[in-house]
Amino acid sequence: MILKKVTLDNKSDLEFIEKLYIESFPRYERRPILQMHQLLEIEERFNMYLLETEDNTRIGFVTYWMLDTFIFLDHFAISSEQRSGGYGKKAVEKLIQQTDLPLVGEIELTGASDMASRRAKFYEKQGFKIWDLPYEQPPFEEEYDAVPMHIITYREVGFPANFETIRDTIYSEVYKKRYK
Predict the structure, then answer these.
(1) pLDDT digits (tens, 9 = 90+) for 102-149
(2) Looking at the 3D structure of the chain, how many domains does it have?
């Protein structure tokens, strides 16, 4: 598994990621493409990686934020043609190996759909803990509502005691919003 850093200069890789991003996440769970380009250009803490096999087959992508005390997994997707091939597991293992920081992410509520339940099981199998604490993903655009989500963590982050601090960090640093 290869994690290849993507910049605005990587047009072909960027197009692959944009297409998969749109296919994998509903509109209300993703930022506008132009906003993602702006982050790539000016936000040093925002990272985008193409996921490739050793023979350079593109299989997916991950975006994440390097925050002070943890890494926030923003978006992660494997192309539909490559799912169930163990690539998601390999990608998560690679991310875990590259840092000692805790990983924090958001997933849909487990009862929201069959896919949400499968996603939760996937992360649990990788060693993530799913927290049943009140959390909503802020909307990326004004016309959408906040989305109820679970926070997931890999490595100790001091939950539930530090939950509000981590939530507020995600809101202010990633979404540029204040928790209501």
Answers:
(1) 999 999 998 878 888 999 999 999 999 999 999 999 999 889 999 999
(2) 1
Instruction: Output the domain CATH number for residue 20.
Output: 3.40.630.30
Q: What are phi and psi of 173, to 5 degrees?
A: -85, -40
CA–CA separation, 16 and 4 (whole Å): 13
Q: Which long-range contacts (CB under 8 A, 24 or more apart) does 52-56 make?
A: 52/1, 52/2, 52/4, 53/1, 53/2, 53/87, 54/1, 54/2, 56/2
Burial level of 88, CB count in 10 A (0-12/13-18/19+)?
Answer: buried
Residue 96 lies in a domain: yes
Q: CA 77, CA 31: separation in Å to the nearest integer?
A: 15
Asked if residue 26 belongs to a domain, the reply is yes
- In sequence order, what DSSP letters do the residues of 63-129 get, joined into one string? EEEE-SS-EEEEEEEE-TTTTTSSHHHHHHHHHHHT-SS-EEEEEE-TTS-HHHHHHHHHHHHTTPE
- Indicate whether 179 belongs to any domain: no
